[in-house]
Design brief:
The chain is mainly alpha-helical and 402 residues long. 82% of the residues lie in helices and 0% in strands.
């Protein structure tokens, strides 16, 4: 498991830097505009490449060496972080520059995500995928605790630019870990050969597999209408509770701390279940109603912790369900579709959330999250009656393990 340990450490460090940049970028947009909609536009631009390139990027992940692809994407994101840091430090940054760099970061992420998600199974083998996904999510969300907290204090004391510089440096940990891996210990499958209609074949495969179809549809609804806290938290901190970057960082860190608990809970389970998948969505929605009515920042923080746990339990369970239910030859394309609906929902979600916050206030975003998640959970529960409680293991995975 040395390869996975190297990956996990590098992912923890680079993700910490990434969350520092996210807080810095959000606060930079609010500093430049003092308005909700540009924040939603930035989020939409950052995730729109997933809509345009997601399926093709998954095919690329199936065709090429995933470790080498990750080296390229991580290096690209480091350069973009450095550029934003220089522009901010010199005072030359303008809103259109933030938009452009967010779009380019989205392009790199569109290729990075399916490669990184499907690379997990290559490092640990099919029998440990659910555990590895949970640990990987715990690492990512530990970074969500540390990154925003550090960024909030850093911005309050020395400004926004250092958050971008530290993010650029943090990618060296992931790059170093990838270079130090032993390729001979990877559970690799022969690359998919070039051919016509491979993306369409991936879509047809997902639609023809009930577990994949129902899970990805649920992720699409929750991702577009429920997982909108990236826009909600800075707007709540700024406009509802009249705080600064420190308040935003604290709220983000507390929600992330709850996410770590959710990730560890999923990691302890040997196999994802439909009950956990639907139950976590319902809990997320009900807690969002409570968070929308929080009168103070302290009460808001108290609700954000279990919200983080429920949301991450849902995403991690959906992730491992999709990986275990997909054939190895299709996994890159399946994970790209998973990423497309999860991250690709960011553009409409960001624009809708920014508009709603401008019209009805930031609390309206959380009300939307509550309504959509509770409704989605109810529909999924009714539609899934009679299905197995556990997601089926894939024959190809069992053969690979043998």
């Amino acid at each position: 498991m040395r390869n996975f340990r190297l990956f996990l450490f590098g992912h923890l460090v680079s993700s910490t830097g990434t969350w520092m940049q996210q807080v810095g970028q959000d606060w930079l947009v609010l500093r430049l505009t003092d308005a909700p909609l540009p924040l939603g536009i930035t989020l939409a631009l950052q995730f729109s490449p997933m809509l345009a390139l997601g399926a093709w990027a998954g095919l690329v992940a199936d065709r090429v060496d995933k470790r080498r692809l990750l080296l390229a994407t991580q290096a690209s994101m480091a350069v973009l972080a450095l550029a934003l840091g220089v522009l901010t430090a010199t005072g030359a940054v303008r809103l259109w520059m933030v938009y452009t760099l967010a779009l380019l970061l989205g392009v790199a992420t569109a290729f990075d995500m399916p490669a990184r998600q499907s690379f997990v199974s290559e490092m640990v083998g099919p029998e440990r995928v659910a555990n590895a996904v949970g640990l990987n999510s715990a690492s990512f969300n530990t970074a969500r605790v540390v990154g925003p907290a550090v960024a909030g204090g850093l911005i309050a004391v020395v400004g926004i630019a250092p958050a971008f510089f530290l993010n650029a440096v943090s990618f060296l940990a992931m790059i170093g870990g990838l270079l130090a891996m032993d390729p001979d210990r990877l559970y690799r499958r022969a690359a998919v050969e070039r051919g016509r209609g491979q993306i369409r074949a991936g879509v047809r495969y997902v639609w023809a597999t009930p577990v994949l179809r129902s899970t990805i549809l649920l992720v699409a609804v929750v991702g577009m209408l429920g997982l909108n806290y990236r826009v909600a938290l800075p707007l709540l901190a700024r406009f509802a509770f009249h705080g600064g970057a420190g308040a935003y960082g604290a709220l983000a860190a507390i929600m992330a701390a709850g996410s770590v608990v959710g990730a560890l809970a999923v990691a302890r389970r040997g196999h994802p279940t439909r009950l956990l998948l639907i139950g976590s969505v319902a809990a997320f929605g009900l807690l969002s109603f409570a968070a929308a009515a929080a009168p103070t920042v302290l009460v808001e923080a108290l609700f954000l912790f279990p919200i983080g746990a429920a949301s991450l339990a849902f995403v991690a369970t959906a992730n491992s369900t999709v990986q275990l239910a997909s054939d190895l030859a299709m996994r890159g394309r399946v994970m790209s579709l998973f990423g497309l609906v999860l991250l690709g929902s960011g553009p409409p979600s960001g624009l809708l959330s920014g508009w709603m916050a401008g019209q009805f206030g930031p609390r309206s975003i959380m009300l939307l999250s509550g309504v959509s998640c509770v409704t989605a959970a109810a529909v999924a529960a009714v539609a899934g009656r009679g299905r197995p409680a556990r997601s089926p293991a894939v024959p190809g995975d069992a053969e690979q393990a043998a």
